[in-house]
Design goal:
The structure is a single chain. By secondary structure, this protein is α/β, with parallel strands linked by helices. It has 2 domains: about 210 residues, 3-Layer(aba) Sandwich (Rossmann fold); about 170 residues, 3-Layer(aba) Sandwich (Rossmann fold), CATH 3.40.50.2000. The chain is about 40% helix and about 20% strand. It has a 7-stranded parallel β-sheet. Strand 11, helix 13 and strand 12 form a beta-alpha-beta unit. Helix 3 packs antiparallel against helix 4 and helix 10 packs across helix 14. The longest helix is centred in the N-terminal third of the chain and has 17 residues. The protein is globular and about 65 Å long.
Length: about 400
């Protein structure tokens, strides 16, 4: 009989966390495990990429608590008062004050989930995959029956909203806490030393065979540009650093370099970036291509791949660019040095416009260096089997 395992996350938006999950699921033996993806909402460009053998379920009732969970409680209390729901408004405000004082939202989560029963299905393993996300951690702990429960941490917890007190209390009840890079693990342990013995590193999986196959199926670049193409893949947001890319590119253009810069991804910073592109008169040179679940043809066809992020946990798009043997410039975010060896298979620079610019000028002017980086990049370090065994033997 197959063992049942469940992964819980918000949705299947096109992002690194979701892609890492799909890659991981593809490595799990289908003859031994029955996999379920449990989401808060039915949404995302990766929904159609979930393998047919995977069960997909949703939290029925999430819409009724979504605003209470994600919007400021003071604002929600005000709206409830306007609707005449005085007792509920007072309750929400009271719980907000208590959670602020205790620095623990468990009481608030318990209130929101008071009408929802524990899931009927029982699992061998249940994973709070979209972490750190306090609500999902609490839900897996309290509303899912499983012999073993695992917490996953995908980000540098020093760069995002993170509650060490909640983590210390809740994560200590999980069998294992996987973190996606050694540097990110050290930062987690520094903030939550209580869980040190429960933590382990699980690198986000990249699947070279699939990446190379998909790179031949996508549409790729459709313009006839004959200069050097620079590419960045990632959500359009401040932490991904596309604003640094735009400022850097303006200098490259002003200095006469024959280059175009393309960005794949969507996000809440698109309008800001569009304004910046227009302000610098880069409309036909710095191209926002939008979201694409298969960016691999673009990566395969670009001349230089740039990851200008301000923070990451383990950057899976960097791993994909390595797999396709692209000359790489990356900022020195958490985990970058675990993927790139500076000046051996890529360039690692500080998180600022000047260093990105200088690195790109060096690569643009030095074709031999680009070739050397490509030659030094191999897919041999994608040890997916070793990583997946860490998870399966928990």
């Amino acid at each position: 009989m197959k063992k049942k395992m469940l992964f819980m996350l918000i949705n299947m938006n096109i992002g690194g966390t979701e892609k890492a999950l799909l890659n991981m699921i593809n490595e799990i033996p289908k003859d031994k495990y029955e996999v379920t993806i449990f989401m808060l909402e039915e949404y995302g460009g990766f929904l159609n990429y979930i393998p047919s053998n995977v069960k997909v379920e949703y939290f029925i009732g999430y819409e009724s608590i979504k605003d209470l969970l994600n919007k400021p409680p003071q604002l929600m209390s005000y709206h409830l008062l306007k609707k005449g729901k005085i007792l509920k408004a007072i309750c929400i405000l009271f719980l907000h004050i208590i959670t602020k004082l205790l620095k623990d939202r468990s009481i608030y989560f318990r209130y929101l989930l008071r009408k929802y029963l524990t899931l009927e299905e029982e699992y061998e393993i249940a994973v709070a995959y979209d972490g750190p996300m306090d609500f999902i951690s609490y839900f897996v702990l309290k509303k899912i029956k499983a012999n073993k429960k695992i917490q996953w941490i995908h980000f540098d917890i020093t760069k995002i909203g993170f509650n060490p007190k909640f983590a210390s209390k809740v994560y200590s009840k999980f069998e294992k806490v996987f973190v996606v890079s050694n540097e990110a693990r050290n930062k987690l342990i520094d903030r939550v030393p209580r869980i040190k013995e429960k933590t382990d590193i699980f690198l986000n999986l990249a699947t070279p065979k699939t990446i190379k196959s998909q790179s031949k199926k996508g549409k790729g670049f459709t313009d006839q540009f004959d200069g050097l193409r620079i590419l960045t893949v990632g959500r359009l947001s401040g932490e991904k650093g596309q604003d640094l890319a735009i400022h850097t590119f303006k200098r490259l253009v002003n200095d006469g370099y024959k280059v175009k810069w393309y960005c794949i991804g969507e996000g809440n910073s698109r309008k800001n970036y569009e304004r910046l592109i227009e302000q610098f008169d880069l409309k036909d040179k710095f191209i926002l291509l939008g979201s694409d679940p298969n960016p691999y043809s673009y990566i395969a066809q670009c001349d230089i791949y740039v990851q200008p992020s301000r923070h990451e946990g383990f950057c899976i798009t960097l791993a994909e660019a390595k797999c396709l043997k692209k000359p790489i410039v990356t900022t020195n975010f958490t985990g970058a040095q675990e993927q790139i060896k500076n000046r051996e298979n890529g360039l690692i620079v500080s998180i600022n416009e000047n260093e990105i610019y200088n690195a790109l000028v060096e690569l643009i002017n030095n074709e031999d260096l680009r070739k050397r980086f490509t030659e030094n990049l191999t897919s041999g370090n994608f040890q997916n089997n070793d990583e997946i065994q860490k998870f399966l033997i928990v």
